[in-house]
């Protein structure tokens, strides 16, 4: 029963959340955690490709991202290959932000949240199986109830928002869902012959 309500892989979301809270506490006592963000094309900020999702500018920034992360992460953690997909979303999103983003220090886990959103959307569209479609419907209902507009967030061009993280995260998730579908398709074709 507990596996049904609490997927085994959701523990990684909980762990990442605790690291984010730890980073906020370090920043609170004066540790320069903003150095762990992404500044496009700055070699000193390459580490941010992997660390930026754990760094947030304020407690409200963190809490807003945690709500989205828990909802999207919970649903995504029920999908096969969750760990690989998660690592790939972080690296792809971070690398694309580092290569193509505009000015500023890009921090926060919203790129990962949008990556899960893209992945779940892609699973529903490309793999066309009942669990993927139900997962996307559950995501829509839960984000609606939490007053989160993922589609609106995707195209939020406000000044202090890393729209690049949102767009590249969503695109990374979508591409991963397509790639997994393509591999599954090839494996099915091999097994049929």
UniProtKB/TrEMBL annotation:
What EC number(s) does the entry state?
3.4.21.-
Q: Name one Pfam family in it.
A: Rhomboid
Give me the segments passing through the membrane. Answer: 12-33, 45-72, 84-101, 107-126, 133-155, 161-180
Question: Which parts form a coiled-coil structure per UniProt?
Answer: none
Subcellular localization: Membrane
Q: Which GO terms describe its molecular function?
A: peptidase activity
Please cite one Gene Ontology biological process associated with this protein. proteolysis
The membrane topology noted for this protein in its Swiss-Prot or TrEMBL record is:
Multi-pass membrane protein
Keywords recorded for this protein, A-Z: Hydrolase, Membrane, Protease, Transmembrane, Transmembrane helix
EC primary class: hydrolase
Peptidase S54 rhomboid domain boundaries: 46-181
User: Record's SUPFAM superfamilies?
Assistant: Rhomboid-like (SSF144091)
Where is this protein primarily located?
membrane
Signal peptide span? none
Under the heading PANTHER family, the entry gives: RHOMBOID PROTEASE, SLR1461 PROTEIN
Protein name per UniProt? Rhomboid family intramembrane serine protease
What organism is this sequence from?
A: Pseudoalteromonas obscura
